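pasting input
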Amino acid sequence: MSKICLCLTGKTIKQDVELLNKYRKFADLAELRVDCLDAAERLYIRRFPEMAGIPVILTVRRDVDGGYFTGGEGARIKLIANGLAYANADSRFNFAYVDIEEDFNIPSLEEAARTFGTRIIRSCHDLKGSIEDIPAKMKSMRHAGDEIVKVAVSVKTTRDVLNVFRASNSLINQDKILICMGHYGIYSRILAERFGSFLTYSSALSESVIPGAPGQMDVKELSEMYRFRRITKKTKIYGIVGNPLKSTVSPWFFNTILNLEDADAVYVPFPVTDIGDFMELAEGMDVQGLSVTVPFKEAVIPYLGQKSEIVNTIEASNTVYRKGNLWLGENTDYTGFSTSLLNFLDMKNLKRKKITILGAGGVSRAVAAEVFKMGGKVLVLNRTVHKAKELAQQYDFRWGGLDNRGIELMSKYNDVIIQTTSVGMEGHDLSDPLELYNFTGKEAVMDLIYTPPQTPFLKRAAEAGCKTLNGYDMVIRQACLQYAIFFGREIPKKHLQHIIEGNKWDKIVSG
Ligand code: ATR
């Protein structure tokens, strides 16, 4: 089973000991990042293993490898030698591991380390993501049989992650460390077990210390929310796939319930650049189910072996799950949205309601189909007018652009305004998609976005006196439906209550 390593990047030994004491229950081992220590503090590293009380990795990371050590190689070797010197017969008082690079070649030091039970982590930091054949690289790196080979790659695309994942089958039965650094590799840190990695590195991100490397997760979150230490080969993997997926409430929602149910399953954020590459990776990682969000709800369709009726109609899927060798596609946005809207308006249907839908993308299609079914009279406005036209014509709705002409039409369709574009969402264009429109204050306004809780558009509507609702209610409703699809059971009411009462905005997970 993979271990959690807490990176200690304080400026002083005292600070590192304090950090370790505060977070030790979440970590199996610690890494003393000597390169982060003030120069004067580096003199005292030899005493650290004894103070730590858990196994410690000794690391002096060079700046060229993504660390902070800028001195010469001679000075660095001296520091490492100092850390390994005066080895104690009781191995608890020695560093348990020393991280040295593939080009580090001081046989006497390495021999001394081995003699006193300090295992060598032979590392390669590929900051450019340029290694093509990672398995070959791993084989060539190892100087001796008991070394732990570590390859950390800066990933910019999902293909890069796939490349690293393929190496998980190399050096089988040998301890190795594989890491994808950066935002698009965040799930390799949670699913270290699936990547065949001996350990995962994490930091105490809520403290004022620098993270050990880009994309590292918070040690407490990793341990408590993702229950990292419980992830085994049998654990069922689920997650949310999107881009940029900078903030999503779904991992908190699902993991809280899975935790309350004590289920052997975990739900992971999957920020991806290419859905095709990811679906291949998802099969490799044995993923069982996916929530699909912006911008992949339509792009995922070609990968589905079977589609529900609604997915066939609207050609967009937000729920994908595994059955045998196939991916099945469902769409829970649809029912999640309609129950949320009717509850908001306190109505049973939308007859006699004049409605404007902003947007004509994947989500808008689900919204349009449902509003049609509930009997609303609709105008679809979209930046790209022909897409509004295509959508509107399916239901005999009217259409227009987000321009003066479109705004004029709106005066007859403004009982309810439903905002379905990505404008105003964290990580996207933060403007107001309807800036030309003046709210009367009588409109009921629903924005499907929930991060941030109030978009500039929704804020303006609320300030004009409109009744407003953001997308959180809908997201919870559709997630409940997804849960039932993924796990074949409803969420127990008491667990749902726990979620609803939880301080949701604090729980949004940033990837
Ligand atoms: P989703 O699956 O979430 O609906 P999508 O299919 O990519 O995502 O659709 C995004 C919607 O947001 C579209 O209606 C898009 O308008 P275009 O069809 O003109 O692209 C809309 N959108 C995105 N960025 C926008 C912007 N800056 N201004 C106005 N509309 C925007």
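fyi The CA atoms of residues 148 and 175 lie 5 Å apart.
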